[in-house]
Amino acid sequence: MGREGDKEALMGKLLGEEECDESVSIMSIVGMGGIGKTTLAKLLYNDEKVKDHFQLRAWVCVAEELDVSNISKAIFQAVTGKNEDFANLDLLHVALKEKLSKKRFLLVLDDVWNEDYSKWELLQSPLLVGAPGSRVIVTTRSIRVASVMDSKEVYELNVLSNEDALSLFGQHGLAEKNFDKHPALKLLGEGMVKKCGRLPLALKAVGRILKGNRNGDEWEKLLNSEIWDIEEGSDILPALRLSYYHLPPHLKQLFAYCSLFPKDTEFNKK
Predict the structure, then answer these.
(1) Rounded distance, CA 49 to CA 154, Å?
(2) Cβ contact 102:131 at 8 Å
(3) Where is the NB-ARC domain (predicted)?
(4) CA distance linking residue 133 with residue 148, whole number of Å
(5) Which pLDDT tens digit goes with each residue over 230-256?
(6) In the β-sheet with 56-63, what is the strand arrangement from edge to edge?
(7) What gap in Å lies between CA 270 and CA 261, rounded to an integer?
(8) What digits encode the pLDDT tens for the residues 187-202?
């Protein structure tokens, strides 16, 4: 929602066949947390034209620690669909090269924090055998990361426009694209948009708290909550803190349990 222009701007570069010194070029999407970097990358990754253009596609969540061995294995699994064990990194990279050799591939490295060039140099070594036109999309909060990864294209993502932000909030708070049927709530909705800084993640979180609630007093109460003003030195969005406080007790307990798992850990929901 509201990212169609960004998608079109990047699509041409993603599918373009422009001359490039390297067979694989890096495209970084840079922006603050909650702004929609991963959402935009998914829009590109799942587009039918992109699926037809690339022979292989792989999506890997990187998170804060770039472990070359684990990320390389995740790329191999995504490309082959197989979970194989290798005695060392060299053997893994040989196998990965065989799968990628002369293939035009798209790799998404989501949520990258690494600023160590030597790690990136090691990770990308098996990727360089790809066919011309291969692409790596990196999502990151840091322009420094984009530089370390030799990004040919750096796309800085901005917050949503007021119109798109209000529409997104309406979809999650009212299940409607606008406030035409609820003029009394529109001013409060605009206040929420301002409090959320037009960040998609924050807008969705607060919208879900109010979902189905058409009571203006409840909207105003949330808008004037003291939580918006709490500063605890963390980068947790106030909107996410609000959504946690509004969870029923049994879900708060479940949330606390899930928080024990490292970021991006896969676990069986049962």
Answers:
(1) 22
(2) yes
(3) 4-175
(4) 21
(5) 766 555 678 888 888 888 999 999 988
(6) 56-63, 105-112, 134-140, 24-30, 153-156
(7) 15
(8) 999 999 999 999 999 9
